[in-house]
Design brief:
Two copies of one chain form a homodimer. Chain A is an alpha+beta fold and 391 residues long. Chain A contains nine helices and 19 strands. In chain A, strands 1, 2, 8, 9, 10, 11, 17, 18 and 19 form a nine-stranded mixed beta sheet that branches. In chain A, strands 5-6-4-13-14-15-12-16 form an eight-stranded mixed beta sheet, with helices on both faces. In chain A, helix 1 runs parallel beside helix 6, helix 3 crosses helix 6 and helix 3 crosses helix 9.
Chain lengths: 391, 391
């Protein structure tokens, strides 16, 4: 007798989306999560743009991101309806701005590239940029409006996923998972305690923490690393109108900065990328984020610094996510990646991690892909390059 | 029948020091305080330097500060003994550094001035500065070591004052004082409630909030204004040695910045001076404080930003504190400042506020002065220019 049809390890946006969709398909689902605020999902900005500097040349990841953003609005609408909670979806798009001729040339290439893959992109002169966003710095030379880009409030989005999961009976257990095997999960519900749960399927969606779980095949554990990001949450004082309405991106002194506005007056400024695994808020990072944000939009100096937080994104050796079944013969024996294309059989382990900077964007498509695997089907072809067998 | 010999309004470092010393002299003392964290005493850095840019030309204030710093060590030793709590007194002194020839010339004037009033000051070249503080920026051109300057941990200092007051029976009542009159204090212990306490003497030490208390003479209320200060508390990560051991001051882009180290690894960076009465932490202020601190000591970028806080200092129309009795004939009648030199009679109101940036430094001398007034004696002559009658 199994404890559940599916056990999901990890309660961030990936794990919770998987749990919700699996339960929606009629399965009994248990989600195991440490229950702390140490989650990349809570630190993120919720910016949903399929094209960024980092995927400019990575065709497979770009194709996956395009698939993911196509899927997102319908998934999000269903989520809001199921949970009864708004996720703060914004559709104004992203305005990427330039400060010199080098930046402008890069924006021309980005515009051309977006057009070549069928995405919207409109080159704007400085005057047009400032018409859209009147508080942009006077030094703004021009920009590109990507009107198809989206954003959600990542915290509201996770809260809605949790609420939706609860409505279809997902059971959440607090604990730190230490070992996984075929059909078995061992975890610590509290200090010094150890317990086990069994299920037909185990899905590991523990972000960078996947690297610390025994039983996950070594090639996967070795491919995942934490990439620290520090991020700021600003708020408008009562008397100030909202100073931006689009997501604004800029390259300031070689660093990519983004400003994501919320309808409730929050403005998220991100983010550092650091090869460290602590969660310290450092003086240098806060300074640099504020300086870069104020370079793009000087009036940010008047906003309230409400929160500085740090998270650890699950980076991978090739910057792509890792999604698919891995073959494990018996509980307590070492698991190894399944051959490419193998569907998950009963007792198999499914891994869904390594979403790096794109966790929120990829969450809907990931939940679909895992739902397909649980049903013995193949996920969308955009996922093929991201099978664990590649590692 | 009076409720107490003395009622002190305000539980910051000034009010608590007054309450402790009054009780130590055998009086029954009640201290009324709102009990919130909205206290300039909790935001301060605890830097105790009698000479700063702001008092360079103000002879009366300088004389008072010199009297106060002479008094401080013995008072502090007695406080630590009485409370059983260390206040974090540091005696390494203040190193003020310069970045250009203009700064250096200003430091020469400061050195000469300190010598002229009998204070220690040693001009150091860049090499000697960096020998004292190896993490100073390479752009440091020279400095002055003021080895007589002190600092305490302002929060530990306030905690010790509270503990010492408790040991001699000071009774603390939580409430927001609304009105004072001769021998009478009216306050709100909770929302919608109003109550009164009577005493032979009432001492108002409510910082800038003194301006909002009915019954305090109008000339005093009008002379006091809140001057907002934002300040940062940094911490060393576990693996980093403490990066400074002296209080470090510098003028960066025309702004005075100070860095006050604590033995426990905290490093306080201050402070803005803003003519505002909110307590918002603003993006611009945090950015400027971090930039200026990192200009002086670049390694500060590696420290943890543990806290940003804002307080409202009690500024006055002439930058000096206000200390002395004001004559009030009867409860509920309007009070007016007493003529200069009038000692406090029974039923009089004593005001002790307007300490602006020097609250911790002046706290010991203020407690002595109020103790003298309560005993029908004159305070130290350094206080004479700061009588309420001047307003």
């Amino acid at each position: 007798m199994m404890d559940a049809d599916v056990i999901v390890v990890g309660g961030g946006v990936i794990g919770t989306a998987i749990a919700w969709r699996a339960a929606l398909a009629g399965r009994t689902v248990t989600l195991i999560d440490p229950g702390t605020d140490d989650k990349a999902s809570l630190v993120a900005a919720g910016m949903l743009g399929p094209v960024s500097e980092s995927v400019f040349g990575e065709q497979d990841l770009l194709a996956l991101n395009l698939h993911a953003i196509d899927r997102f609005p319908a998934f999000n609408a269903e989520l809001e309806a199921a949970s009864g909670q708004p996720t703060g979806l914004r559709t104004e798009g992203t305005l990427t701005v330039a400060y010199d001729s080098g930046d402008l040339a890069a924006l021309d290439r980005l515009t051309e590239f977006r057009h070549s893959i069928g995405l919207k992109a409109e080159r704007l002169d400085a005057r047009a940029c400032r018409k859209l966003e009147p508080f942009l710095a006077p030094s703004t030379r021009g920009g590109v409006l990507a009107s198809g880009d989206l954003s959600v409030d990542n915290r509201r989005y996770l809260a809605a996923l949790r609420a939706a999961a609860a409505t279809v009976g997902v059971r959440t257990v607090v604990g730190q998972v230490t070992d996984v095997a075929a059909g078995l999960v061992r975890f610590r519900p509290g200090p010094g305690e150890t317990t086990e749960l069994s299920a037909a399927h185990v899905v590991v969606a523990a972000g960078w923490g996947t690297a610390r779980i025994e039983g996950v095949p070594d090639p996967i554990r070795k491919a995942i690393r934490p990439v620290k990001g520090q991020i700021l949450r600003l708020r408008h004082p009562g008397n100030l109108p909202h100073i931006i309405s689009h997501t604004v991106r800029a390259i300031v002194q070689g660093r990519d900065i983004y400003l994501v506005p919320r309808a409730d007056g929050e403005l998220v400024v991100g983010a550092t990328q650091e090869e460290r695994d602590d969660r310290d808020i450092t003086a240098g990072a806060v300074h640099d984020l504020l300086r870069d944000a104020m370079t793009a939009v000087p009036a940010i100096s008047e906003l309230i610094l409400a929160e500085a937080s740090a998270g650890r994104r699950p980076g991978t050796s090739d910057n792509g996510p890792i999604l698919g079944p891995v073959q494990v013969s018996q509980p307590n024996e070492a698991a190894r990646p399944a051959a490419t294309g193998t569907a998950a059989g009963t007792g198999a382990l499914i891994v869904a991690t390594g979403h790096f900077r794109n966790g929120v964007l990829l969450s809907a498509a990931t939940a679909d892909a895992v739902a397909a695997l649980l049903a013995g089907e193949q996920p969308h072809p955009a996922w093929a390059p991201f099978h664990p067998g590649r590692l």
